[in-house]
């Protein structure tokens, strides 16, 4: 097993190298953040020990670069630093690090953390192909930094728009419609929906007219994905369908022979977690092969908690409206 040590202290690197080599690890070292990224892609280590405060590139930036790359995000990164404030630990977690250790943890505690991280990696590495070494110069690394910063700004903008939906009191269909409108700006899909397992309900919108057969298949796939993420035994037969406002079912779902069945070769899914449970499942479908990619999955992971929050709020708001309506009806007969 190969470990990359990224730290600008030659004394600490020497001590770590001795400790790890005595424990059977192969060690490579980098003395600054830029060299750490270059060394990572050249050497393909099994684990990274990363300092925070380094020349050229901050440790948090290095960690974020590695964790944003689908080819390297599975490699454990343990932050090993002399800084131990709550703020530092928070940013370590937010940068994607797999663990946070202080430099007082040298010795058995560090070795245990390395073994634990490598064991966790082994469980997710089944069938994974080892990437080829890459030679990156300084401009290549800085270009990747700029890409990550651009993407983070882009994601923050979308998240802000989604959070804005939650501050407006709307019923469930209107909330889902607003959320899907925002998601549609960044992801190209032909069908979008939220499955609500507790209510056994599918709130859906289509971007193009589809066949009745494709409509039924979309419902079936949505019910299947819902069962995968929840304990609710939702089937196509008991999944009621409601459409987002402005949707004309008679125009969008063709029951005649004018539109052929194409199926949904591309299907993206994100469970919506709120208050410790899956309150819904976001499903996106495209009839184009290969419409969704690793970037799609990354975007869905970013927006999922915020979509979950606004959908859960809309669910509770809808229940309040229904309770008030029932209460008003009851008062008429008193």
- Reading the helices and strands in chain order gives EHEHEHEHEHHHEEEHEHEEEH
| CATH superfamily caption of the largest domain | GAF domain
Our count of helices gives: 10
**CATH C-level category of the largest domain:** Alpha Beta
Biggest sheet overview: 5 strands, parallel
Molecular shape: elongated
User: What is the strand tally?
Assistant: 12
Number of domains: 2
Sequence stretches where pLDDT stays below 50 over 5 or more residues: none
Task: Looking at this protein, list some descriptive labels.
five-stranded parallel beta sheet; 12 strands; alpha/beta; 10 helices; Beta-Lactamase; Rossmann fold
Task: Describe, in short, the structure shown.
The protein has 334 residues and is of the alpha/beta class. Helices cover 49% and strands 19% of the residues.
List the helices and strands and how they pair.
Blueprint: E1 2-6, H1 10-22, E2 26-30, H2 33-43, E3 47-50, H3 59-68, E4 77-81, H4 86-94, E5 99-102, H5 108-124, H6 138-166, H7 172-184, E6 191-196, E7 201-206, E8 210-211, H8 212-229, E9 240-243, H9 249-252, E10 253-254, E11 266-274, E12 277-286, H10 294-332
Parallel strand pairs: 1-2, 1-3, 3-4, 4-5, 7-9, 8-10
Antiparallel strand pairs: 6-7, 6-12, 11-12
Helix pairs in contact: 2-3, 6-7, 6-10, 7-10
Please describe what this structure looks like.
- The protein folds into 2 domains: 127 residues, Response regulator (Rossmann fold), CATH 3.40.50; 183 residues, GAF domain (Beta-Lactamase).
- The longest helix is centred in the last third of the chain and has 39 residues.
- The chain starts with a strand and ends with a helix.
- With 334 residues, it is an alpha/beta fold.
- The model has no long low-confidence stretch (mean pLDDT 85).
- The strands form 3 sheets. Strands 2-1-3-4-5 form a 5-stranded parallel β-sheet, sandwiched between helices. A 5-stranded mixed β-sheet has the order 9-7-6-12-11, sandwiched between helices.
- α7 packs antiparallel against α10.
């Amino acid at each position: 097993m190969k470990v990359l040590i990224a730290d600008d202290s030659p004394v600490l690197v020497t001590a770590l190298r001795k400790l790890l080599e005595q424990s059977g690890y192969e060690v490579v070292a980098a003395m600054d953040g830029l060299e750490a990224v270059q060394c990572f892609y050249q050497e393909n280590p099994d684990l990274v020990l990363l300092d925070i405060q380094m020349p050229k590139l901050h440790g948090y930036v290095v960690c974020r670069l590695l964790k944003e790359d689908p080819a390297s995000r599975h490699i454990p990164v343990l932050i090993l630093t002399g800084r131990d404030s709550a703020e530092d630990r928070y940013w370590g977690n937010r940068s994607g690090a797999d663990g946070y250790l202080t430099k007082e943890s040298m010795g058995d505690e560090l070795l245990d953390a390395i073994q634990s991280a490598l064991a966790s990696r082994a469980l997710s590495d089944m069938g994974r192909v080892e990437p080829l070494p890459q030679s990156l110069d300084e401009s290549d690394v800085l270009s990747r930094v700029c890409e990550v910063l651009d993407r983070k700004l882009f994601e923050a903008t979308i998240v802000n728009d989604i959070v804005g939906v939650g501050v407006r009191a709307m019923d469930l269909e209107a909330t889902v419609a607003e959320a899907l409108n925002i998601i549609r700006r960044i992801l190209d899909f032909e069908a979008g929906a939220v499955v609500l397992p507790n209510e056994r309900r599918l709130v859906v919108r289509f971007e193009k007219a589809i066949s009745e057969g494709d409509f039924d298949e979309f419902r079936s796939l949505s019910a299947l994905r819902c069962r995968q993420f929840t304990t609710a035994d939702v089937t196509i037969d008991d999944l009621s369908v409601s459409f987002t406002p402005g949707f004309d079912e008679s125009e969008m779902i063709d029951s005649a022979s004018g539109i052929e069945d194409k199926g949904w070769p591309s299907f993206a899914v994100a469970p919506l977690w709120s208050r410790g449970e899956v309150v819904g499942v976001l499903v996106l479908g495209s009839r184009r092969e290969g419409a969704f990619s690793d970037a799609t999955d990354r975007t869905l992971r970013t927006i999922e908690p915020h979509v979950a929050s606004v959908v859960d709020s809309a669910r509770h708001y809808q229940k309040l409206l229904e309770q008030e309506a029932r209460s008003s009806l009851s008062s008429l007969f008193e």
